[in-house]
Amino acid sequence: MAKTHEIAAQARKDEGKGASRRLRRASFVPAVVYGAGQPAESIQIEHNTILLAAKHEWFFSSVLDLNVDGQVQKVLVRDWQKHPFKQQMLHMDFQRINENEAIRVNVPIHFLNQEKSPAGKTAGVVVSHNLTEVEVSCLPKDLPEFIELDLSDLKPGDIIHLSQLKLPADVEIVSLHLGADHDVAVVSAVTVQEEVEEAPAAEGAEGEAAKPAAEASKEPKK
Question: How many of the other CB atoms lie within 10 Å of CB of 125?
């Protein structure tokens, strides 16, 4: 069972672009909580709280305890808007969850022991992480913060697909229910060979040999 993390927030009544700008100037992030058959609720969160939490991958992939004025709600981060170049979060959306209903969440993949694997030790082999996260479906209590993939046995030429990931109990990969075509590669170990350009000597020799014949064909017939 994944840990939960508490985020403190306050209810807000002022809405609209002007109110949001005032909140940002006061170092707060305007946000909305919705879902679970309840009305949407406008809240505000101290920007430093969001800034620190957003540095951890669990903030975007785990069940959070959102504490709004002392009332705790189980939520997931569903959307966020960041400033294009400043280190500033502009707005956030949280979705309430029902602890008895399955949720779908993108969970990060942690790659282990790549440098110890035969592929990792072989010169000229490129190990590609084709996916760094995967969408899973499960009850909130079963949601993992991440999925580990041990690459210690990865050999040159190997490909690891979604269906080969080891999942916690009662956790499923959503895309595998869509058919075999969706069992895509997560990791591939490809041998890269350097291309060696052929020396142009032979071509040059043929060209020189062809010159007299070409010149002879241009001579006028007697």
Answer: 19
Element (H, E) at 217: helix 201-218
Strands annotated E in 69-151 = 71-82, 89-96, 103-112, 125-129, 133-138, 147-150
Bridge partners (DSSP) of residue 64 are 5, 75
Q: Give, rounded to a whole angstrom, the gap between the first and last alpha carbons of the chain.
A: 98
Whole-model pTM: value is: 0.78
For residue range 52-80, list pLDDT tens digits in order.
999 999 999 999 999 999 999 999 999 99
| CA 187 to each of CA 56, 105, 156, 161, 184: distance values in angstroms, whole numbers, following the listed order | 24, 21, 11, 7, 9
91-105 pLDDT per residue, tens:
999 999 999 999 999
Other C-beta atoms lying within 10 Å of the C-beta of residue 21: 12
> 């440098």: which residue's tokens?
115
